[in-house]
Amino acid sequence: MASDSTPPADAVNTAIGSVSVLSEDSRRRMFVFIRRAGRAVTRDEAAASVGISRKLAAFHLDKLVDAGLLRARYETPGGIRKVGRRPKVYEPSDAQITVSIPERRHELLADLLLDAVLTEGADENAAQAAVRAAERRGRRMGEAARDETRPGRLGPERGLTVCERLLDEYGYEPVRAAPTELRLRNCPFHPLTAKAPDLVCGMNHAFLAGYVNGLEVNGVRAVLAPEPGECCVRLGPGDTERDDGGGPLARR
């Protein structure tokens, strides 16, 4: 995926664009050559690596830079300053490309499990720690979204509209089944969910419940409602009772 500062939905579009750029054979081969070089590469070297002209190589290299796959700068090879203009050199960027349709969020699941391992308490088992870590992450994200947007009091309909943004960005494919109900058409953690449904679905439920709590959406709760081919959680009508964390109480 993209960096933490890039919204997930934008990251998918960026990744698709990057893959499209690499569809051209010479461009892709130059990209591989530069990644494996272990140093900055000149246009002449890149052109020679695939047997094309320097001018054509410059065109393809600039496309790779525009796509965020390469970085370009001016440098004298070997650090020795020579007379004349310094050559332009290219090196790999830090971009990582992952494209999945429908979208998957395995890195989020892995991050939550790592969080659980690092913070597991003496009074809980691994599964309990994982669910706790997921709820805490969701709550913090909800609180951050509330601090950023300052939406005021959120009732069910407007609250679900705010929730849709995160759910869409993280690949849940939310659909408004009713004014106060969201169905989630995609499970971002598939196919790992099938390997450990109780654990993964429990974490997913806790994550989404935490987000609703942190965002302080009144009259909405996350509930487990598995449907074939969809996420196991839906957001629907609930009470406005508060838990100790200050958000609406979301129960199974």
Automatic annotation (TrEMBL):
Source organism, top-level taxon: Bacteria
Basic and acidic residues: compositionally biased ranges: 135-151
Region (Disordered): 135-155
Matching InterPro entries: ArsR-like_HTH, WH-like_DNA-bd_sf, WH_DNA-bd_sf
UniProt name for this protein: Transcriptional regulator
Originating species: Streptomyces endocoffeicus
Gene3D superfamilies according to UniProt: Winged helix-like DNA-binding domain superfamily/Winged helix DNA-binding domain
Organism ancestry: Bacteria, Bacillati, Actinomycetota, Actinomycetes, Kitasatosporales
